[in-house]
Amino acid sequence: MDTKAIAQDLHKAEKNVVSVDPLTVVYPRITVEEAYAIQLAGVEIRRTTEGHRVVGKKVGLTSVAMQKLIGVGEPDYGHLLDHMLVMEGESLNRGDLLLPKVEGEVAFILKSTLKGPGITFADVLRATGGKRGRSCRNCLTTFPLSGR
Hints:
148 residues; 4-stranded antiparallel beta sheet; 5 helices; 4 strands; 34% helix
């Protein structure tokens, strides 16, 4: 699986505000490791081609009820880039969004870099400047209620 090419396709879809099928539909045998590799490739694309920077991390599916609903057994994580932040009082351009929604996810704004393994809870507390909500930019044709 060419994770970089898939990340490029997803990036192009996001930029053009075009929907795509969920990766689990297009690639039914995709692994969690491959999905995270695609995510990291997407972060790298945004860093190198657009100059965006990682300003935090986000954790999704922290509710056991939501995990059960979509058929996964653990939370997921992602990166919060500077262009994803929408601060209180700022507006969003509806034309930039596809299937907009607001999700209750935990997102940490980092004051300093966290590198593992061996990161402790105290390390996380020292590195975070606060927690914020997150605006979703969804380019899926449907919102999947299944982890597969």
